[in-house]
Amino acid sequence: MDRNTELFSLGRLLATPGAMEALEASGEFAGEFVARHARGDWGEMGAEDARSNDRAVDDGSRVFSAYTTRLGARLWVITESADESGRRAATTILLPDEY
């Protein structure tokens, strides 16, 4: 996969309060992590989960990435499965305990 091009539609971008607090504390921006996610940089996912995400780009199922901020907060970025027309409604950045 080309890791410099957005591989799938993100839909609406959402962030939970906890994720926003963690990002603000670390001086990082949600867009940095969402852009990596959209380019197929799955962050700290294992090989099997990364392959699952690669398949999800093609088959429209849910895409899930995990990253860590500079201050050690774990972030998840989740893009919903595509609907019958192929559109993904939303991508959310959140803390694991907000899932």
Structure description:
The protein has 99 residues and is an alpha+beta fold. It has one domain. It has helices at residues 17-26, 30-38, 47-59; strands at 12-15, 63-68, 74-79, 90-94. The chain has a four-stranded mixed sheet. β2 (63-68) and β3 (74-79) form a beta hairpin. The chain is globular, with a radius of gyration of 13 Å. The protein starts with 11 loop residues before the first strand and ends in a 5-residue tail after the last strand. The mean pLDDT is 96.
Topology, pairings included?
Blueprint: E1 12-15, H1 17-26, H2 30-38, H3 47-59, E2 63-68, E3 74-79, E4 90-94
Parallel strand pairs: 1-4
Antiparallel strand pairs: 2-3, 3-4
Descriptive tags:
4 strands; globular; 99 residues; alpha+beta; 4-stranded mixed sheet
Q: Can you describe this structure in just a few lines?
A:
The protein is an alpha+beta fold and 99 residues long. 32% of the residues lie in helices and 21% in strands. The radius of gyration is 13 Å and the shape is globular.
